[in-house]
Batch of 2 targets.
Target 1
Amino acid sequence: MKKTHALAGLVFSMTLLGAGLTNAFAADETLRSLAEKNNIYIGAILNSQWFSGGLPGNYEQIHKQQFNIVVAENEMKFDATEPQEGRFSYGNGDKMVKYAKANGMRVRGHALAWHSQVPNWVNNYRNDKQKLLKVLKNHIENVVGHWKGQVAEWDVVNEAISNNEPQWRTGSVWYQGIGPEFIDSAFVWTHAVDPDAELCYNDYNLEQGVNPKAKAGFLLQQVKRWVANGIPIHCVGSQTHVEDTTTDKHFIGSPDSLRSLAKELAKLNVKLKITELDIGFKSGVNVSKHDLERQGQTFRQYLDIILEEPNADTYLIWGVSDKWSWLGGLNRQKGLIYDDNLKPKPAFDSILVRLQTFEPPQDTSKKDTTVKDSTVKDSTAKDSTKDSSDAIRPFAMPSSISMHVAGRTLFVTGALSTKSTKIEVFDMQGRPIFSTENSKGVFDLSSISEGFYVVRVKSGMSNLIQRIAIK
Ligand code: 9MR
């Protein structure tokens, strides 16, 4: 079942992968095109500012070029969709669904039953079980009914588990008024309205192990029970709001722990999705180039779960640019893959290189159908993913340079800019191995051990990425 590792199927000779592979990485590749090649979804929220037209044009251009799944930061939540009892408001959500259709993206719905962002009129029924059951059912029937067939997956229940010890979040209006059966009910009601939608339980701190004392361990017990009882749950969303371990020494989450949750869920035929990823640094600390590179590696490690685990298919980031991110409220900063000026960070590169170098296993039965069938398509729309944009310049420009390896020496030929040349070598997991800004065109790679690597040359407006073998 498990995907075989990337390198297992490589048939390249151990000599230079020469002229024939010079174009192994097309210049116009994006995260999105590479994710589609790997049968996964890659996405970012549409920030709330987008809905009011408050973001620069290149934000949207980046979003539609780089991502194939979208979720609204706040606009499909309870307080946004039913601000007054029985009065539904779909304007913003419709705007996003239209955008997704025009750009061939899958839509995630977030979130139906959550203790936060519920309007006061709901909280006023806090201890009235019968009324709360009616309120939740009516909300689900209307909202899910409105977007039936257009929202491919829902966070049916969000954050129902307490953060401090593994038990239900007892302060939630839904738990307090109804009891834990609000969860079972919400799944059943949602499924009844849209039997084709994928239904998720979504929560944070799920990357801290699956033992019964951890949140994910508690959740796993519930998922087992739901599955055994025929409750229609298809996926667990791991929000994955994590902190760089150097600025929070006590942070105990890890990609390995999340991977173990994916493996446990696979036994239950339930998917794991990463739904709200950000990897922040503590506010106020200086963040160096090296820190950003390490952050990129962590982004890559979480991506590996999605690429390699057969029951994992979605990698969704909670924002595009550090400029529009909720993280400040959590005393964290710089947790996303574009900087304040919408320029790609090392994390972007790390994800891109990993998507480029991952070799899918021979048996691709796992993800094929989901990716291809469930995006919201609008056949009349032009293919806006082909727009050119400054923001993805590193990968949009045709290259006027070339490279080859002889022995342990890398030769880069063509007009290298003396002002802005950067040569980088990554290993096949996307980890940076070597980097120089020297523009002489001849580089000694004798310190690099034998194996396959990816070289990227950025010089002026030219950009070339090529896989090489060092022997
Ligand atoms: O990013 C959202 C922010 O704009 C809201 O103020 C906040 C209110 O709760 O919700 C943020 O999104 C949250 C998401 O809906 C659920 N998981 C945690 C996210 C970050 O707080």
Target 2
Amino acid sequence: MLNVSNASNEDRLREELVMLGRSLYDRGLAHGSAGNLSVKLSDGWLMSPTNSCLGRLDPARLSRLDADGRLVDGDAPSKESFLHLSMYGERADCGAVVHLHSVHSVAVSCLDGIDPDNVFPPITAYAVMQVGRLALVPYFPPGDAALAEAVRRVASKHHSILLANHGPVVAGRSLAAAVNAVEELEQTARLMLLLDGRRTRLLDPAQVAELERRFPG
Ligand code: 13P
């Protein structure tokens, strides 16, 4: 028998995923067919289909996957479905995953000499609170199994990950939380590039520790 409350919850999540995809696209945080979004259901997850434009998703055609990442309904899923599966598998609190090719984050992902365990210096409070310690994983082609495996290896320790020469991936408890965090990541990347070469006063370790105590992830 159809569980009416689950059905309406799924309908709501379909609409939310489409709305947030359009919002990212309308503000230039996603372009062309780059980026993908997913959100967890009680028995699997919903995902943007491969080669779709985040600004023009159709709620009825979203890919529906089971808990193991197999397509059960809708269009073929994003080629990064295994990467999203790595996040869900490693993070019990993960309710949604967002991957973008947003310009400033991609620029930082191309810089040489980045600390792979903590890409951003502590520039602002919100970067510490919402992005946390951003990990960098090495370059692999989009959709490659090795890329999903590289993400799996760091996902239990990092909810924010930067794919080298590619873009950010963020896990959140909800779609709204994951989108807020990836937007903060993009703005922090922009600030990092703006401040490059300028004398900068960073938050000190005690200020970072205080934020982590007050706002635990
Ligand atoms: P998909 O169109 O398969 O989602 O791929 C887009 C992308 O961002 C690859 O990294």
